[in-house]
């Protein structure tokens, strides 16, 4: 049939990108099925024998009106589907408007540029002082390393503050052990012995930790005078440790021999007269344990910070300034980097796609025109189908009549109007003025905006570089 042929033609033209439509769009009218539905031949024969419609009738009878209503109902549904298809084509055409797409991309690009320029002012307030502090601490550290000929990185002690816990354990262990040794000579027993031991342990551990933290580490200094003084202080400190524990051992012996009241003088005299001679084997244990704990405290002091005095604190100041600047830099610029990348990506995609828009829009108009032409043929097929059914009814009716047929039997039926002439369809199919734009000029403008975005972002990154990308010349003071 005509409608089917036209529909196949328009489907071939529209291809796979046609807008979605309901199943049955431009489907042919099955006149045979309608004739069977209305029992057209039998009813026409019966009504013809009864002389219905009358000879002077001027309007279609009930059966003819049913046929017309059936045909017009299908035609009206198809008209609605036509409008839906044309709206879909209009929406697609909007998507392929060069001017509209350029305006959208331009607005987005300028919005990104505005954000970048606003951050330029914000960055000075939020990052300026942090950057200056970081640069100053970095330069200070560099000068320190150069002055002291340090090429290695600082040796950070990740467990610096656990050292104090360890020292506390040493004091507790030494106090308990020494308390048992001193308890025998103390009139207060265990309590007196532990009290004496705690005092000795505090002096021992504290002094040894300080000895390791300062004089021992200062031996590493490049300055010969400082190194010599530190070495003398270290040797004096170690001698003091030996004397302290020698005194503690003699003091224990004296407490056991002469009592707690006279133990101090006796211990000093014994230390001067016979420093290596002790009365009790436990006193030697006391001396050895004290020396061991002292050396452990010295080691903890020496490793509490970087071996080179001053290097550790300066490196920590540098790291703290770097971390503060880096964190604030992330807060200020991270989201801008994402926005910049997304905008540039969208602009690049637009630059690639916009040159294709005129041809794509022309293809859509061609597809739309094919649908309109197919519907024009469909409306002709609707009239043909209706007149075919009416003719079948009228001819059978006329053969079985005994009186003349009404005059309107000779008039063909026509559609009341054409959907193609409706205001909405004319609006949707109006030939828009073909966009007369300089596509190449628009593409150059988009490229310029993309470069401006890159330039603004790079200017920010140059003025406020991330610490990992900051050269020695950046912010030199």
From N to C, what is the helix and strand string?
Answer: HHHHHHHHHHHHHH
State the share of residues found in helices, binned by percent: over 70%
Span of the ends, CA to CA: 90 Å
Q: What value does the average pLDDT take?
A: 86
Protein structure class:
mainly alpha
Strand content: under 5%
Count of runs of 4 or more consecutive helical residues: 14
What is the number of independent domains? Answer: 2
Mass-distribution shape:
elongated
Task: Count the beta strands.
Answer: 0
Unreliable stretches (pLDDT < 50, length at least 5) are 1-22
Largest sheet: none
TL;DR of this structure?
This protein has 477 residues and is mainly α. It is 74% helix and 0% strand.
Main attributes of the structure:
477 residues, disordered N terminus
Q: What does this 3D model show about the protein?
A:
The chain is mainly α. The chain has 2 domains: 227 residues; 144 residues, no CATH class. 74% of the residues lie in helices and 0% in strands. The N terminus is likely disordered.
Describe the secondary structure blueprint for this structure:
Blueprint: H1 2-14, H2 31-37, H3 40-49, H4 62-95, H5 98-147, H6 162-183, H7 189-218, H8 224-258, H9 263-273, H10 281-302, H11 311-353, H12 357-399, H13 423-428, H14 439-463
Helix pairs in contact: 1-12, 3-12, 4-12, 5-11, 5-14, 6-7, 6-10, 7-8, 7-10, 8-9, 8-10, 11-14
